[in-house]
Amino acid sequence: MQYSAKVMDHFANPRNVGEIPEASGVGEVGNPACGDIMKMSIQVKDNVITDVKFKTFGCGAAIATSSISTEMIKGKTIDEALKITNKAVAEALGGLPPTKMHCSVLAEEAIEAAIDDYLKKTTGKGLEKKKSLSHDEHHHEHGE
Ligand code: FES
Q1: Do residues 85 and 12 touch, judged by C-beta distance below 8 A?
Q2: CA 90 to each of CA 23, 60, 95, 116, 118: distance values in angstroms, whole numbers, following the listed order
Q3: Looking at residue 128, what is its pLDDT?
Q4: CA–CA separation, 68 vs 39, rounded Å?
Q5: What pLDDT, on the 0 to 100 scale, is given for residue 138?
Q6: Does the beta carbon of 103 sit less than 6 angstroms from any atom of ligand 1?
Q7: Where are the domains of the chain?
Q8: What is the 3-state secondary structure (H, E, C) of 103-140?
Q9: Distance 124 CA to ligand 1 centre (A)
Q10: Taking the chain (144 residues) in consecutive chunks of 10 residues, what is each chunk's mean pLDDT?
Q11: Considering the entire predicted model, what is its pTM?
Q12: 3-state percent helix, strand, coil for the chain, nearest multiple of 5
Protein backbone atom coordinates (compact mmCIF):
# COMPACT_ATOMS: atom_id res chain seq x y z
CA MET A 1 0.00 0.00 0.00
CA GLN A 2 1.16 3.46 -0.82
CA TYR A 3 0.88 6.47 1.36
CA SER A 4 -2.31 8.43 0.89
CA ALA A 5 -2.21 11.94 -0.55
CA LYS A 6 -3.13 13.22 2.87
CA VAL A 7 -0.17 11.52 4.51
CA MET A 8 2.13 13.01 1.90
CA ASP A 9 0.57 16.44 2.39
CA HIS A 10 1.02 16.40 6.17
CA PHE A 11 4.52 15.03 5.79
CA ALA A 12 5.52 17.74 3.30
CA ASN A 13 3.62 20.56 5.03
CA PRO A 14 3.29 19.61 8.67
CA ARG A 15 0.89 21.82 10.64
CA ASN A 16 1.61 23.31 14.04
CA VAL A 17 5.30 22.55 14.16
CA GLY A 18 7.21 23.95 17.08
CA GLU A 19 6.95 24.39 20.78
CA ILE A 20 4.65 26.51 22.92
CA PRO A 21 6.60 28.65 25.36
CA GLU A 22 5.24 28.14 28.87
CA ALA A 23 2.87 25.45 27.67
CA SER A 24 0.17 24.12 29.98
CA GLY A 25 1.46 20.63 29.36
CA VAL A 26 4.28 18.94 27.50
CA GLY A 27 4.56 15.30 26.58
CA GLU A 28 7.44 13.50 25.04
CA VAL A 29 7.22 9.92 23.93
CA GLY A 30 9.46 7.62 22.02
CA ASN A 31 9.31 4.32 20.26
CA PRO A 32 12.23 2.21 21.42
CA ALA A 33 11.96 -0.04 18.38
CA CYS A 34 12.75 2.64 15.82
CA GLY A 35 14.15 5.36 18.08
CA ASP A 36 11.68 7.97 16.89
CA ILE A 37 10.68 10.73 19.29
CA MET A 38 7.61 12.94 19.41
CA LYS A 39 7.14 15.95 21.62
CA MET A 40 3.83 17.71 21.97
CA SER A 41 2.99 20.85 23.90
CA ILE A 42 -0.52 22.05 24.62
CA GLN A 43 -2.06 25.27 25.82
CA VAL A 44 -5.21 24.74 27.84
CA LYS A 45 -7.80 27.29 28.83
CA ASP A 46 -11.06 26.45 30.59
CA ASN A 47 -10.51 22.78 29.89
CA VAL A 48 -10.15 23.41 26.16
CA ILE A 49 -6.98 22.88 24.16
CA THR A 50 -6.54 26.29 22.60
CA ASP A 51 -3.19 25.64 21.00
CA VAL A 52 -0.92 22.72 20.28
CA LYS A 53 2.48 22.34 18.70
CA PHE A 54 4.67 19.36 18.01
CA LYS A 55 8.21 18.40 17.21
CA THR A 56 8.84 14.99 15.80
CA PHE A 57 12.16 13.41 15.15
CA GLY A 58 10.95 10.47 13.24
CA CYS A 59 9.70 8.80 10.12
CA GLY A 60 7.32 10.35 7.61
CA ALA A 61 4.30 8.58 9.04
CA ALA A 62 5.17 9.81 12.52
CA ILE A 63 5.41 13.38 11.26
CA ALA A 64 2.13 13.09 9.35
CA THR A 65 0.29 11.55 12.30
CA SER A 66 1.58 14.15 14.74
CA SER A 67 0.65 16.92 12.34
CA ILE A 68 -2.92 15.75 11.82
CA SER A 69 -3.42 14.93 15.47
CA THR A 70 -2.62 18.53 16.40
CA GLU A 71 -5.43 19.59 14.08
CA MET A 72 -7.72 16.99 15.62
CA ILE A 73 -7.25 18.09 19.22
CA LYS A 74 -7.14 21.85 18.72
CA GLY A 75 -10.33 23.37 20.10
CA LYS A 76 -11.30 20.12 21.83
CA THR A 77 -11.82 19.60 25.52
CA ILE A 78 -9.38 17.46 27.45
CA ASP A 79 -11.89 14.60 27.55
CA GLU A 80 -12.55 14.78 23.84
CA ALA A 81 -8.84 14.82 23.07
CA LEU A 82 -8.29 11.77 25.25
CA LYS A 83 -10.84 9.83 23.21
CA ILE A 84 -8.84 10.20 20.02
CA THR A 85 -7.25 6.89 19.24
CA ASN A 86 -4.34 6.13 16.98
CA LYS A 87 -6.84 4.41 14.71
CA ALA A 88 -8.84 7.61 14.35
CA VAL A 89 -5.64 9.48 13.57
CA ALA A 90 -4.70 6.97 10.89
CA GLU A 91 -8.21 7.08 9.45
CA ALA A 92 -8.12 10.87 9.28
CA LEU A 93 -5.03 10.49 7.13
CA GLY A 94 -6.82 8.16 4.76
CA GLY A 95 -5.15 5.12 6.26
CA LEU A 96 -1.61 4.00 6.91
CA PRO A 97 0.23 0.93 5.66
CA PRO A 98 -0.06 -1.84 8.31
CA THR A 99 3.65 -1.69 9.06
CA LYS A 100 3.25 2.00 9.84
CA MET A 101 0.32 1.78 12.23
CA HIS A 102 2.69 1.83 15.20
CA CYS A 103 3.78 5.32 14.19
CA SER A 104 0.26 6.58 14.85
CA VAL A 105 0.41 5.06 18.33
CA LEU A 106 3.16 7.54 19.04
CA ALA A 107 0.76 10.40 18.25
CA GLU A 108 -1.90 9.03 20.59
CA GLU A 109 0.68 8.61 23.32
CA ALA A 110 2.10 12.10 22.82
CA ILE A 111 -1.35 13.68 23.24
CA GLU A 112 -1.90 11.61 26.33
CA ALA A 113 1.49 12.47 27.79
CA ALA A 114 0.91 16.20 27.25
CA ILE A 115 -2.51 15.98 28.94
CA ASP A 116 -1.06 13.90 31.75
CA ASP A 117 1.55 16.60 32.32
CA TYR A 118 -1.11 19.30 32.26
CA LEU A 119 -3.26 17.45 34.80
CA LYS A 120 -0.31 16.84 37.09
CA LYS A 121 0.54 20.52 37.00
CA THR A 122 -2.99 21.72 37.63
CA THR A 123 -4.48 19.05 39.86
CA GLY A 124 -1.37 17.35 41.19
CA LYS A 125 -2.69 14.12 39.78
CA GLY A 126 -2.06 12.63 36.36
CA LEU A 127 -4.22 10.34 34.27
CA GLU A 128 -5.62 7.34 36.09
CA LYS A 129 -4.24 4.88 33.63
CA LYS A 130 -2.52 5.31 30.37
CA LYS A 131 -4.75 3.68 27.87
CA SER A 132 -2.26 3.38 25.06
CA LEU A 133 0.13 1.42 27.19
CA SER A 134 -2.51 -1.16 27.88
CA HIS A 135 -3.24 -2.11 24.31
CA ASP A 136 -1.04 -3.40 21.61
CA GLU A 137 -1.61 -2.16 18.11
CA HIS A 138 1.16 -4.12 16.52
CA HIS A 139 -0.92 -6.66 14.75
CA HIS A 140 -3.39 -4.12 13.61
CA GLU A 141 -5.23 -4.82 10.45
CA HIS A 142 -6.20 -1.64 8.70
CA GLY A 143 -5.32 -3.11 5.37
CA GLU A 144 -7.26 -1.80 2.44
FE1 FES B 1 9.32 5.07 14.09
FE2 FES B 1 7.44 5.48 12.34
S3 FES B 1 9.15 4.18 12.13
S4 FES B 1 7.50 6.12 14.37
Answers
A1: no
A2: 26, 13, 5, 22, 25
A3: 82
A4: 14
A5: 46
A6: yes
A7: 5-122
A8: HHHHHHHHHHHHHHHHHHHHHCCCCCCCHHHHCCCCCC
A9: 32
A10: 92 98 98 95 98 97 98 98 97 96 96 98 87 47 41
A11: 0.88
A12: 45, 20, 35
In this structure, which residue's CA is closest to atom 2 in ligand 1?
103
Region for 21 from its dihedrals, namely left if φ exceeds 0, alpha if ψ lies in -120 to 50, beta otherwise: beta
Q: What are phi and psi of 106, to 5 degrees?
A: -60, -40
Please work out whether the CB of residue 95 comes within 6 Å of at least one atom of ligand 1.
Answer: no
Which residue has the least CA distance to atom 4 on ligand 1?
103
- How far is it, in rounded angstroms, from Cα 86 to Cα 142? 12
Residue 93: its pLDDT value, please? 98
- What is the CA(78)–ligand 1 centre distance, in A? 26
Q: Residue 34 CA: which ligand 1 atom is closest?
A: 1
Instruction: Give yes or no for a contact between 127 and 115, defined as CB atoms under 8 angstroms apart.
Output: yes
Q: Is the CB of 29 under 6 A from ligand 1?
A: no
Q: Please identify, in words, the CATH class of the domain defined by 5-122.
A: alpha beta
Confirm if 95 and 65 have CB atoms less than 8 A apart: no
Identify the H or E element spanning 42. strand 36-45
